[in-house]
Amino acid sequence: QVQLVESGGGLVQAGGSLRLSCAASGRTFSNYVMGWFRQAAGKDREFVAHIYWSGGSTAYADSVKGRFTISRDNAKNTVYLQMTSLKPEDTAVYYCATGVVGKRYDYWGQGTQVTVSS
């Protein structure tokens, strides 16, 4: 069974940095994509970034482009989200998710809170 465990959230001042991790287990992910999403209080969940396990192709939401970097360590089955120049509007619960490339995200982590103070 696929499990995703996020870590690395916390409280940071505006302009600061955090690195989120998502450890994946339970299967081989070679034809999967790993995504980061976030949901702020009272708002819909939104896409942040994704990376393909095979090949490493990435994509980002416009709101985080140039500030966030998604990467992976295939040996550790772990995906990272390096967040820099954080803004109060980045405050949200961040989730990692995975699914077969071209299909929906089937597996989700429990989420990790990121709070950016002004």
Which consecutive residue ranges, at least 5 long each, have pLDDT under 50?
Answer: none
The proportion of residues forming helix, as a percent range, comes to under 10%
**Order of SSEs:** EEEEEEEEEEE
Beta-strand percentage range? over 45%
Q: What is the overall number of helices?
A: 0
Oligomer: single chain
Radius of gyration: 13 Å
> So what's the overall shape?
globular
| Class from secondary-structure proportions | mainly beta
How far apart are the first and last residues' alpha carbons, in Å?
40 Å
User: Taking all residues together, what is the mean pLDDT?
Assistant: 95
Total number of β-strand segments?
Answer: 11
Largest sheet: 7 strands, mixed
Key attributes of the depicted protein:
118 residues; seven-stranded mixed sheet; four-stranded antiparallel sheet; 11 strands; 0% helix
What does it look like?
The protein contains no helices and 11 strands. The protein is an all-beta fold and 118 residues long. The strands form 2 sheets. Strands 2, 4, 5, 6, 9, 10 and 11 form a 7-stranded mixed β-sheet that branches. The chain has a 4-stranded antiparallel β-sheet with strand order 1-3-8-7, with no helix packed on it. Strand 5 and strand 6 form a beta hairpin. The mean pLDDT is 95.
Present the secondary structure layout.
Layout: E1 3-7, E2 10-13, E3 18-25, E4 32-39, E5 46-52, E6 58-60, E7 68-73, E8 78-83, E9 92-100, E10 107-108, E11 112-117
Parallel strand pairs: 2-11
Antiparallel strand pairs: 1-3, 3-8, 4-5, 4-9, 5-6, 7-8, 9-10, 9-11
